[in-house]
Specification:
single chain; seven-stranded antiparallel beta sheet; 8 helices; 37 strands; about 35% strand
Length: about 650
Amino acid sequence: MLHAELGIAPTALEQPELPVAEGALTDLPMPRPQSRPAPVAAGAPGHAAPRGTPGRAAAPHQTPWHAPAAPGSPADQAAHGTPGQPATPQQTPGHPPTPPGSPADAAAHGTPHQSLGHTPATHGSAGDAAGVADPAAKTATAATLPRPAPTRPDPYLPGQAVSPAAGTVAGWSGVPHSAPPVSPAPGGGPTGPGRSRRGLWIALGAGLAVVGVLAATVLWLTRDRYPALEFRTLDVVATPKAGAERATALFTSVLGDRAYLAHQLADDRLEVVAVDADSGDELWRKPTPVSAQRWAGIRALPGGLAVLADASGDSTPRGLLVLDAGSGDQRWRLSVHGDDDLHYTRDTVVWVDRTGDRLVGLRMRDGHEEWRRDSPRDEYGNSRTRVVRVGTPEAWGGAGSVTGAPTAPWLGTGGRLVQVDADRSVRLIDMDSGEVLRSRPNVADVDDLVVAHADRLYVTEDERGYRLLGYDLASLGEPDVLYTAPDDGRRPQSLVACGEHRACLLEVPDAETARTEVVAATEGKGSRHWPAPEADGLVPVGEHLLARRDSPQYAVTLFDTDGRTVLADRDGVAVRLDAGNVLLFAEPPSTAEDDRSLAGMAVGGESPFEMGELKDVRSESCSWNASVIACGREKDFVLYRFAGDE
């Protein structure tokens, strides 16, 4: 009776281990106040005979909640289809149609039917007897059980119509309707507001993630690539020995975390010492296999070290040695001349052979000749040439020498040279392959100021006054005129690239150096001018500019991109540590041992940081990276740390 009064299958209460939503029983409709009608026996008039009669296929198993539908009735048509139409699966009011292949679909088409909210009968139970016993018993059970009350459509399920009387159950006057709580079908998910809220949170989280990625990208792109260094008081890192006797020649070259130190031996060979720039630990020490009366210096390379002898004249032969960076062993050797130039990439040494009137590409690994190009001649047979390297922002953003030239010019994409020839033509040449990428006639004389940087070639055309021209290296088409001198009395000097599509030079009017000005010309934006009295050279530091002079004494002035003075007339010389910081020597370089005061300054800072003195150093031998400086002394070398942590 309890089962019948509550209107639920007995097995739902007899199996407490199955999930039943809390409060499910309280939400069930109350029984009708009137007496229940007597059950109608199977086969009574007005009711269809059970399925399985001759001439009809057996119907799917029916739960005690549903009586068999009469053949041809709407329910029967819903279950079996109208003549000529495929049968449609039975749909319980308030629930969406079951998709084909789902568990519910399988239940309707060949497995015992299980309604949502009802527990399947266990083997041997009354429900099992109804489902497994002979058809007659099954039919009798279905006929004797009461028909459930109709349910209203679920307003939270799509595609379900809600009747005007959705607040009450038809036939149950005044009793509010509450749908039986159900557990989600296997593999299904929640529906209604819960799913909408969860989707909203997922979408919100995804949006915030995208915003975070975009913000990080913007911060990365707009970051200061060359922040102010943390300068510190000079601290000795190491003092590698140079020899028992006072060395006649001392050289250093610092590249990354490697410092090379060289001194001339009594037999005129050069002993080279490689040390770790951060710790000062000695890595190897080797003498060169050849000697020279004088040595010009050493140059740290990617994976190697170039050692160059000096020459007394332009046509005097001198030796070039390339040593292995890992062992100090000689890789190869070449005889060049006093006025020859050498340019380096990671894989190639380009030899400007002026005696042979050619350019030669040599493989860095073993010195093998990879390519050669003869220098063009003018109509008189003259083969004078000038070769300038195409600079990159990465190379010029790193450390530079006293002249401003990058310590690592191979940084960045592509190694290229611009050759200016005696016939006024220019050629853009790939340094590794020797391929002539582009050429153009009548661009510049060998003695004109020429600078190549990134995708631009800047030339000062010095005829009846002068003009500053800019060529696009991608095409070498017609140039842009960036600046034209107002009169014939002005002369340009020290041309440099000082920003994107921007060139800077010193202009001296009527040979009066006290009236020297900086001219900064930008494509499409005109030019700016500001005074730089007595200046004779420019060194770019990012978009800032160092103007140096050597008369009446050595001094430097630092200008920002608009020409405002950041540091005015400081005695000594300045060198670039990177595009945001400079190193300041109180006096110019010297071959004599002496103390040299050192300071550091960020281009955006207010004043230099005084670091102290380099003690008893030959300042002309010093080289540096962004944190360490190496110098030669009378009988040893010294490495000082001036920035960063130990």
